[in-house]
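A quick aside before the break. I want you to see a complete sequence-to-structure record at least once, exactly as it would be stored in a machine-readable document. Don't worry about memorizing anything.
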Amino acid sequence: MIVKVFTEKKELLNRFFMVLGEPEFRFIEHCGAAMGLISGIVQLVVFQQLGPTGRQILMPMTGFFLGIFSNWLAIMMCFKPCFPHHIRLFGCDLFTVQGLFLKRQPQVCTLYSKMLCEHFLIFDKVVEYLQEQPELWEKLREAYVQFNTKIMRQTIGFRGWFAPLVLGRGQLEMFEKDLQEVLVNGLHQAKDVHDIASHYIGQITDIERKNKEALERMPPDKFENLLHPIFQEDEWILILLGGILGAIVGVAQIVLLS
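That is the input. The structure line, written in tokens, reads:
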């Protein structure tokens, strides 16, 4: 059901990635800006020592390679190394190095589980999906009808003599059948029922806590796949784009400085 919803609603999938990876996206931006500033100062110093030809080669070439390197480094720092590495000096632990996204595994697990329940563990989506499973839906529909029939008979006294006597047995059976159809057909429109059922499903399954704990138990190299695949597919485009933009900026700098 989750895969189906994600496939049909790409904007929801994008929202998940943007929320889960917001700190990493921000880091990539800031890392590129910081490296661009440092590289720009170095370029400026070297630029003053070169002639016209050297300057025309320097700026686009360094812009291209620095753009590629900065984007590559920023992406790698988000996901590598997978497992924490302790940096020691003279036997003392100084700090631990790990991919930025993987360092946040506990926080990401909590957020992901919460979003999963908010967007998917809602009754109307569950019913909508189940209706597309003919064999299962028929069993659930039959159970739902039987339960409501039982409640209705207890309420109006079908087992006694009063209801059949007043309505007539045939009329009562028609009323019962019509009511069953209305209940089943109107199930997906009953907003209050959806809210109550969603809350009940969330409590009885405790899926948010279980999902969070399952994600927390994942080893870092598996947990990385929660976000990294959206980078991996177009990673080379992101890196190459950094190089192309760097070269364009280099050409613009030559024109302005000349």
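Two observations worth writing down. The mean pLDDT is 79. DSSP finds 15 helices and two strands in the chain. We'll return to this after the break.
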